[in-house]
Every structure is written in structure tokens, then in C-alpha cells.
Amino acid sequence: MNHNxxxxxxxxxxxxxxxxxxxxxxxxxYVVNNADPLTYLAIRMAIVVGLMAIIAAIARxxxxxxxxxxxxxxxxxxxxxxxxxxxAIAIAHSIPAGLSxxxxxxxxxxxxxxxxxxxxxxxxxxxxxxxxxGLGGVVLILHNRPMxxxxxxxxxxxxxxxxxxxxxxxxxxxxxxxxDWRAGNLVxxxxxxxxxxxxxxxxxxxxxxxxxxxxxxxxxxxxxxSIGSIGLLYWLIRHAAATSVASLFYLVPAVTAxxxxxxxxxxxxxxxxxxxxxxxxxxxxxxxxx
Length: 290
Known about the structure:
It is a single chain. The chain is mostly helical and about 290 residues long. The chain has one domain (about 25-290). It has 12 helices and no strands. The chain has helices spanning about 5-30, 35-60, 65-90, 95-100, 105-120, 125-140, 150-175, 180-205, 210-240, 240-245, 250-265, 270-285. It is found in: Membrane.
């Protein structure tokens, strides 16, 4: 890859990642209307395992050693298991798709705090100011939303998503960066398929309605999200500081809220739009020196 191609990829990857990642909340809204959340995720991950096995068979990547396999499994449970499980359960418990992206949208603050200590990455005062600015934007988008009752269980699942995606991306950066993405992802998805299958058999009735809506959304989530957006996320983790990558998650609630407004008629008012503008400004501030 020449310098021009690398520069184009560096500019396009964050934009494409945010767009794809945001569609995950929209797609989940469709699938949980037709299936139990952990059951749907077990099916999705089994499909992805099949696709990744084909990719690995063609590419014949170098396989990680036992330690690498163990690290990949842990990263998979964090990045895919608890994060996707928490998101799906949140939406299944009546958290609107636009709002289910909000608590994970707080990830940049938590990531930067941990990265500053665990990975030794320096977060500058300007970047901290940008992170706080983004936090303010997320709060504005979150204003006047229900937080109790069934929604309370959904918010709890969203908190689990926040913690797991934060720890998962940092774990991936520290322990899995040297592992070929094709072999590593296959191990991750195989591990999380078993994780979701056990959860579905323990806690759900495993109901699935194979409607056209479910099949199309499932196909999109398996290919565009589990392979496309995760591939972009891991590429960004390899090529940028943890704080810069995490700041992109400030844009996800805004993009998801816009999509949910257009597709589902979810609430979007002037205050929320102002919050989106703050989130965009925050990402610019955090990444402007990069």
C-alpha cells in the first residue's frame, strides 16, 4: 500500500466505522422483534464463524500460540459477548435504538482514563477538554428520557455494554495486536458463539420468527457489522492511540439517533441536535493533533 492509499484509508476508515457501527443498533432493533436476544446472537455468531472459517481457509494465516488463543477468546467475550449481549438485551427491554447507543457512547472518557494508566498513553489537557465536551454532548442527547421500570433493566444492560467494550478494546490493543486478524477473529467468534449458545439455553425460550425482516437484518449484522465494522475497529486500534479511537464512539449516539429518527420516528429535538454538534466538535478536538 503506497503513501496516498494509506492516507486515504486513514481518512475513510473512521467515517466508515462510525456509519457501520451505528447501524448495529438499528439492525438489532429489527432482529429482537423476531427473536430472543441471546438466541439471535448465537445464530449471528455461528454464521460469522462459518464466514471467517472460509476466509481463514483461503488466506491460511499464521495461527496464534496457546497464549494468543486465550487472549483472543477473552477479547472476544468482552468486545462481542457482553457488549453485544448488553445492547441486545437493552433494546429488548424497550430502550429505543437511539438511546441504546448513548451509554456505550460514554466510552471515550472511561477508555482514556484507563489507557492513561494501563497502556501508558499520554492524554493531553486539550484532549481531556475534548472528552469532557463530548460527555456534555451525550448528556444533551440523553435529556428527558425514562430511566426507571423496565427501562431500568435496559439501562443496566447498557452499562454492562459500556464496561465490556471499553475493556475489550484496550485488551485487544495490549494483547492481540500481533495476532493475524483472520485467525484471531475466528477464535473470538467461535468463543462467543459458545458463550451466547450457553446463555440462550440457560435463560431463554429460544424463540425465533424467520421473517424477511429478521433474515435481512441478521445478514447485515453478520457481514457488515461482525466482519466489516469489527475489522475496521481492530485496524484503527492498530494504527491509532486508544483515546483517539475511543473518541469516535462519541459520534455513534448522534448517527444512531438520526437513523432511528428517520426509520422509527424516535424523538429528536433541538437540544439533542445541539448535543450531536458537541459530540462532533469533541471528536475533532481529541483527534486534531493526530
